[in-house]
Specification:
single chain; 22 helices; 2 domains; alpha+beta
Length: 575
């Protein structure tokens, strides 16, 4: 049996009419709801993935699976299958095939949490509940270790339902094919009232924004979540944070657009979907793009003909790639209407101090000339740039930024050269200029015969800082080779079809991680030998297994978009 699949059977033991929505039994007080429409397809969507099958070969995972706790759990699952006369897929269908719903009151101390399992087979649900009570008592007796007064599960009935209770922190009930589990007895009792004497408006289904959330989410999610933000924003601390975040430079830059979407939205909805290539998690907030305050031109292009993000860079060996929209020039010109008095004063003082170091310009003017599109990429090809090896090898990295004014490239050229000349006095930098594909590239190498007390681990030998200006972009890289690899993409016209309305997106590449591990395996091998006490050959084998696993992972990408009708964030894994 696959371990991931069998884990959910612990929930399925405690049970679950097919057409009935389990949300009908979640009391109206809940402001956070998670519903699994069909538990078995969700489980199989995970357990049938290639990565889920391959991960069991990893030594670290095998150690967990071989642990006493894991073996005992799998034994209990097999015992349940034997007693109930079915394997876990059929049991999940019988005990929770009508769906699973979880509800709670987020933000409340010691809040009740309720799990509802809607089954399709009453006889199986009754047998599973009885078996679950027996297994609880067996486990409690084992944990009591022969005590004269062992803790036991207290059984009973309530409103025609079979019940079981352990102290004040666990209460469960089964009524027909439905099973209820909670940390608070009143939550189960309220749910049983809804099951026996249903009334309109008494369950969470009567909430106005719940159906709106499902409609906004769209598609056919395996599971989805609804969070009532109206209730959450009644909490003073949360409401104050949403308002003040617009005036604080750090939060404005880091998460300002997201925070403002939360401020304007009545709810958050999130869904998990199965795709042809893997899995996707999508979250939406009903916050329209047209309602964005002017200060968020920092994060979002206000003109429809301006793309949110440019194409992701993917040179050979790519490990991580990111593209984002961040219009710092717009922020600088509007700073007086955006920031609070003290933050504005501090920012303008810092601008004056930095400007003293810049030749023939000010930091403010430099910001105004900069462009809004920025891309970052990290690649791992196992390249050593110096004979002296750094203690902690890093991937090669590069930043590609657009410019609003061509003068930006000229000023940055002068500024970077000046900064490198000053740094050269301390670090012994040696400058090299070359022309590649019609583009002037300037690079700097660190001297290897000059010890540096400030860098005892030789981190500097990860870098051969390089920069160039090409086709309206400033390219800064940690090596001239990476810069050259990026030039063909930078020089060609931007393809609108490859752009995205998303204002921030990134991607992590499993193949890049695998290549990086193979290229720089010495440290991992050494750690395995010293930490696990194994031989060199076994350590190398472990690294090979881990690299093979990483190579099967595909890519993991994240997107953030301020859409016409909703703010959207998405995480997608592709095999």
């Amino acid at each position: 049996m696959r371990p991931l699949a069998s884990c959910v059977l612990l929930l399925a033991f405690v049970g679950s009419t097919v057409a009935a929505d389990p949300l009908r039994l979640v009391p109206k007080e809940a402001n956070l709801v998670l519903k699994v429409e069909k538990p078995r397809p969700l489980i199989e969507a995970v357990t049938t993935l290639d990565a889920s099958r391959d991960y069991q070969s990893l030594p670290q995972v095998k150690a967990v699976l071989d642990s006493t706790a894991a073996r005992r759990f799998f034994q209990l699952v097999e015992h349940a299958e034997a007693k109930l006369g079915a394997k876990w897929p059929e049991l999940v269908d019988a005990l929770a095939g009508g769906g699973m719903a979880f509800g709670t009151i987020a933000g409340k101390d010691q809040a009740p949490a309720l799990l509802v399992l809607q089954g399709t087979d009453e006889a199986k649900a009754a047998a599973a509940f009885k078996l679950f009570v027996q297994m609880l008592n067996d486990e409690l007796a084992r944990q009591s270790g022969g005590s004269d007064k062992p803790v036991t599960a207290e059984t009973g009935t309530h409103r025609g339902a079979d019940t079981v209770r352990i102290g004040d922190d666990f209460f469960a009930a089964r009524l027909g094919a439905v099973t209820l589990i909670s940390n608070k007895r009143p939550a189960v009792e309220k749910s049983l009232v809804l099951a026996v004497e249903p009334k309109d408006g008494e369950s969470v289904l009567g909430h106005a924004t719940l159906p709106a959330a499902k409609k906004l989410l769209g598609g056919d999610p395996l599971a989805w979540l609804w969070f009532d933000l109206v209730v959450a924003k009644q909490e003073k601390g949360f409401a104050d944070f949403l308002e003040t975040a617009r005036k604080q430079a750090f939060t404005l830059f880091a998460i300002g657009g997201t925070v403002d979407a939360v401020r304007r939205a009545d709810f958050l909805t999130v869904g998990i979907y199965q795709t042809d290539a893997g899995l996707k998690l999508t979250g939406k907030l009903p916050a329209k793009r047209a309602d964005l305050p002017p200060e968020f031109a920092l994060h979002v292009p206000m003109k429809p003909d301006v793309p949110g993000t440019l194409p992701l860079l993917a040179p050979p060996g790519v490990l991580y790639s990111q593209s984002l929209y961040l219009d710092i020039g717009s922020f600088w010109t509007k700073r007086k209407s955006i920031l609070g008095e003290q933050e504005l004063k501090d920012l303008e003082k810092a601008e004056k101090d930095i400007s003293k170091l810049l030749p023939n310009t000010t930091f403010g003017k430099l910001l105004e000339m900069s462009g809004p599109h920025h891309r970052f990429v990290a690649v791992e090809r196992g390249i050593n740039h110096y004979q002296t090896r750094p203690d902690f090898p890093l991937p090669e990295m590069a930043v590609v930024s657009s410019m609003r004014d061509p003068e930006f490239g000229k000023v940055m050229n002068t500024t970077l050269r000046t900064a490198a000349a000053l740094a050269g006095l301390q670090f012994g930098l040696k400058m090299t200029e070359e022309k590649h594909d019609g583009v002037d590239i300037v690079s700097y190498r660190f001297a290897e015969n000059k010890p540096l007390d400030a860098d005892p681990t030789n981190v500097r030998y990860n870098f051969v800082p390089s920069f160039a200006v090409a086709n309206g972009f400033l390219v800064v890289a940690s090596s001239p080779q990476l810069l050259k690899d990026l030039l063909p993409e930078v020089k060609k016209p931007v393809d609108p079809a490859a752009c995205s309305p998303a204002v921030w997106r990134n991607r992590v590449y499993g193949a890049g991680a695998a290549a990086g591990l193979k290229a720089r395996s010495e440290a991992v091998i050494t750690d395995a030998v010293l930490g696990q006490g194994i031989g060199l050959d076994e350590a190398k084998k472990q690294v090979e297994q881990l690299a093979k696993f990483l190579g099967t992972l595909g890519t993991l990408g994240v997107e953030v978009e301020h859409g016409a009708e909703a703010f959207r964030f998405e995480i997608e894994w592709k095999r």
